[in-house]
Amino acid sequence: MRRRAALILLALAVFSASLAPLLRWYAFPRLAKIPANTYQATVLEARNATLLDYGTLRARTVPKVTIVQTLKGNVEESERIEKTVGKDVVVWDGLSYVVGPDGKMVSKVPERYIFDAHTQAPVHADGEMVDGDPVTRTGIEFKWPFLVEKRDYEYFDAQTRTSAPIHYKGTRTFRGLTVYYFEQTVPWTQVPMPRTMPVAGITPETIASTGTTRWYTTVRKFWVEPLTGAPVNGEEVHQEELRGGTLLGGREKVTAFAGEVKMREDYIEHAVDLVKSNRTLVLLMTSYLPWGFAGLGLLLLALALLLEARGRRPATPRAEPLPEPVSV
């Protein structure tokens, strides 16, 4: 019986030990993915910013400029593209909507971002665009992959329609979370005018006909929780200028927008809370369960060896009773 129990325990030990790496290296990469129906909104603000008045074409200081960024999962498009590429795909329809201090629109730029649900790598398909312009992304945008590494990544910039390295700058603590800090500097680059302008009758084509061009630079900063790959905070030191042409009335350039763009406090708190709950699921698949099964396997192996050793131990011979004394 002991030998049979030892064999059963040994089989369970082997099963537990083999299950540990399978969970970490096989199951996790296939089970961890971004849901196709995700919806999220983020509000960012630039206080005491410089903003162009398109009515007078003069820059002025305003108390606040608000940027509302939304990402909405397009399930129908995800399913359509999955049939052609043969893997799990997420389609995010994004919108960056900029509002001035008077509540009126300054600009709005739509995007369609298509990526692998597991790795967050771009997937190229019909509909991938920024502000109506077809693009072919390289690198990441909005979200890092699961299990972020301490290295530089390629990050897509929607203004320039190009990708450039975003540099790992160190590990920090943010609101009780260990995060990786990344930073990217986009040098002054000529970029397209938004298709939707804040003044009726003014279009990118009418501005282009005057010879005036739009230029942009930014320093982009992200604090990323490494297990989930989700940013818990983001900032930009953002500048835009209109340069040259007859539209500026002989001036060389005029500031269209300049300010330090930061996430609003309530959205930071929401992002931190969401990440804290999701990172538990990642830890379960990458740490808690694999190490738990590995430890269980060692325990079962020790019990199996103990039972086997006890089963092989020779039985202690029974002491013979002493003979009764013989009386004469």
Give a topology summary.
Layout: H1 2-31, E1 39-53, E2 58-73, H2 75-85, E3 89-99, E4 105-116, E5 129-130, E6 133-134, E7 153-157, E8 162-174, E9 177-191, H3 204-209, E10 213-225, E11 230-243, E12 253-263, H4 265-312
Antiparallel strand pairs: 1-2, 1-12, 2-3, 3-4, 4-5, 5-6, 7-8, 8-9, 9-10, 10-11, 11-12
Helix pairs in contact: 1-4
What general form does the structure show?
elongated
Write out the strand line-up for the largest beta sheet, numbering strands in chain order: 6-5-4-3-2-1-12-11-10-9-8-7
Number of strands: 12
Order of helices and strands: HEEHEEEEEEEHEEEH
- Distance N terminus to C terminus? 51 Å
> DSSP helix count?
4
| Helix content percent band | 25-40%
| Average pLDDT rating | 90
Low-confidence stretches: none
Look at the helices and sheets and give the structural class: alpha+beta
Sheet bearing the most strands, described? 12 strands, antiparallel
The value of Rg in angstroms is 31 Å
Provide the β-strand percentage band.
Answer: 35-45%
